[in-house]
């Protein structure tokens, strides 16, 4: 298992993105881990468009089987999506279903000029044709479904990646 | 005891009444409603949650606002909505309530939103579905007789929480025709469950049910005394259409004694909010200056009502 230093990966991710962002670039973080990461990237990259937040609970494809997840939160898109270059930010890319839900939700706010995906870790196990344009770490051996990789945030704001047995 | 509103996992199966509904479920509905309020500001005011579900609005009693808000809520969740104005259809030809339900079940209904003049009608439907093993079909009570109007009670709680945050510090007054009001019963049940320390009921003796105190409220027959230092004033509509016999002199006299005017409202706390479930009778239970005034939150109630109904329907259909 490679070193999962979230802080270092976050800085690497920002450097990957830096040559490609413009003053028009808008970030949208997927709640909750993706939003923490997006807040960091927004500061590191000095972006001027306000940061967006998406909660995909109402767009998930497992609603029929699992119902509403507890405590859905607000989706807040404080900029005009119409014609904007958007980067969706998430902590961990796995099956791709969360990204799919976020894409669908984003398009209900308007037609963006382009959409890219930035993630801290690609853990493998994709079930949909989705890839990240920016990714700080790709695991060479995909994690088994019995394991959960997620971003956590300390009280002082430090980001940590945690591997849990699901 | 089997609570007909909850399934075996303790989740909401039907929404029939707020009486006896656990606090955690009421809070879950209010929490779920919050993110739905934002959908109205989007370019596309629609979520895909109930795609492919059929919701039947079964209104055995006339209603425009409640039916419309349920319809909008269901449509914003992408459900297919069928409105049945039952008072002018099969029932008029002699079909029984449960036969109507069975027929609609045969059309693959997923949810019934029911309004009925008879108290207990939605419960009867829920019981029938349970007895016939159709646990995948859900019932929402949209107002039954004098019994309950749970989504109105929930949207009122959402409104109070929005403006006042904490229920446990509040004094709330419910004013007017409590006797005929299913709204008042739902409000009282929810307010007490959510821990409001003082719920007051204000009205003439002829329009208050007997033994109200047993519901955990303080009764006032003097409006000025009852409004003193309250945080929330919940007005009720004078339900002339439900009155048999001489319970009241005239609407003008009712207004004189029980109408909410700026002068009476001044007795409440300066930041008190004024609520009304609609439709309002201006100049009967409320003065126009108050209804359109800075303390009135009557139109936000309507807007929040859509989000609350979206929350209820998506929690039910996702079980």
UniProtKB/TrEMBL annotation, chain A:
Pfam families per UniProt: Pribosyltran
InterPro entries tied to this protein: PRTase-like, PRTase_dom, PyrR_bifunctional
SUPFAM superfamilies per UniProt: PRTase-like
Superkingdom of origin organism: Bacteria
Swiss-Prot/TrEMBL keywords: Glycosyltransferase, Transferase
CDD domains assigned to the protein according to its UniProt record, in alphabetical order: PRTases_typeI (cd06223)
One Gene Ontology MF term: glycosyltransferase activity
Residues of the Phosphoribosyltransferase domain: 7-132
Protein name listed in UniProt: Bifunctional pyr operon transcriptional regulator/uracil phosphoribosyltransferase PyrR
Lineage: Bacteria, Pseudomonadati, Pseudomonadota, Betaproteobacteria, Rhodocyclales
Automatic annotation (TrEMBL), chain B:
Domain annotation Aspartate/ornithine carbamoyltransferase carbamoyl-P binding: ranges: 13-161
Keyword Transferase: yes
Keyword list, A-Z: Pyrimidine biosynthesis, Transferase
Subunit field text: Heterododecamer (2C3:3R2) of six catalytic PyrB chains organized as two trimers (C3), and six regulatory PyrI chains organized as three dimers (R2).
Annotated InterPro entries: Asp/Orn_carbamoyltranf_P-bd (IPR006132), Asp/Orn_carbamoylTrfase (IPR006130), Asp/Orn_carbamoylTrfase_sf (IPR036901), Asp_carbamoyltransf (IPR002082), Asp_carbamoyltransf_Asp/Orn-bd (IPR006131)
Gene Ontology cellular component annotations, sorted alphabetically: cytosol
Superkingdom of the organism of origin: Bacteria
Pathway, per record: Pyrimidine metabolism; UMP biosynthesis via de novo pathway; (S)-dihydroorotate from bicarbonate: step 2/3
Keyword Signal in annotation: no
Record-listed L-aspartate binding positions: 93, 182, 237
Source species: Parazoarcus communis SWub3 = DSM 12120
Record EC number: 2.1.3.2
GO molecular function list: amino acid binding; aspartate carbamoyltransferase activity
Residues binding carbamoyl phosphate, per UniProt: 65-66, 115, 149, 152, 278-279
Biological process annotations from GO: 'de novo' pyrimidine nucleobase biosynthetic process; 'de novo' UMP biosynthetic process; amino acid metabolic process
Similarity comment: Belongs to the aspartate/ornithine carbamoyltransferase superfamily. ATCase family.
Functional summary from the UniProt entry: Catalyzes the condensation of carbamoyl phosphate and aspartate to form carbamoyl aspartate and inorganic phosphate, the committed step in the de novo pyrimidine nucleotide biosynthesis pathway.
Protein name (Swiss-Prot/TrEMBL): Aspartate carbamoyltransferase
Domain Aspartate/ornithine carbamoyltransferase Asp/Orn-binding: 169-315
A family per Pfam: OTCace
